[in-house]
Amino acid sequence: DTLVVDTDILSPDGTAAGFLAMADAGVDAILSPFVLIPQPAMDAAAAYGAPYLHGNTQQATLDLYASDPAAYRNMFQIDTSEPWYGTGLPRFLDGLAASGDWTPKNNRVHIVQGQIAYTQVISSATQAAIEASGGTWELAGITDIQFPVQDWAPVIAELHDSDAGVIMIDYWVAAELAAFTQAFSANPVEDALVYLQYGPSQPEFLDLGGEATEGFVWGTVLGTYADEQGQAFRDAYKARFPGTMGLVYTGSGYDTVQLLVDAIELAGTTDFGPVIDALEETAYRGVTGFYSFDENHAGQTYPDQVSDPEAGQAHLFFQVQDGAHRIIYPEPYNETSYRGTPWTTG
Hints:
By secondary structure, this protein is α/β, with parallel strands linked by helices. The protein contains eleven helices and 14 strands. A seven-stranded mixed sheet has the order 5-4-6-7-8-13-14, sandwiched between helices.
């Protein structure tokens, strides 16, 4: 049986309430796409003791686990942490430039950053990676935005002023990113590559943005592949749930359930301790990549943390092409190549 509990992820108490409700119901395990404030959830889950598998994608989660591995032993972050978004962006840009599919108009990167811890960590990691590039990439500017973004026009004005070759929108709310694509498409920075972090994975991005989303690039460290296994899952999901498919927590949700099922079968029981023991030994290839847990009970990303594409979960980069998300990086999981955008002049 499945118990579904809603949480208010914008408040500590609201976050903890959902986990306490699961404990009160006596569930055998807790599966969660993500929470924004990890400690209340982790403390509630730790007190209960059931295996807690989540896709928080937060270094704060891993730091809390590392502070007391015994107390938080039942915590498993199924993917990596958010700094790898920043580390992986210049690698992607290097590969794209080397491929010949894209010639940057300049080497400057303008970052538009949200103000929650998640986006701030990503921005800091991106800035560090730009600095570490030794001049291959340079920081053009940083623009701060506040949730919710009511008007993108001032942001786009700053982007025109810097005229950077790469624009990074470090923000995750899909509906507001869709609004950005509409505003940007009406007044684009010519020849810029525009990267939107994670948010376009959510169905409402394409549904609300429509034709304006064409050409935009986005990435996720936890995404549903388009290889034979991933495509079979996509086809089955779309047949059951018609409409625009999300490409993160669809596949990862499926994989998380399979991880738990495998662990219970290996343990031969639903008792918390043996299942946690089995999860620590996980070696599972799912529709979003290969799962195993490191010393922090977290997944690892390819190609930044592991060099073998079948030893981690690929940091996937997509481009909207002909109204659909298409994987353009990294090999061997790319479906197609980057192509010029509606605002490309060359």
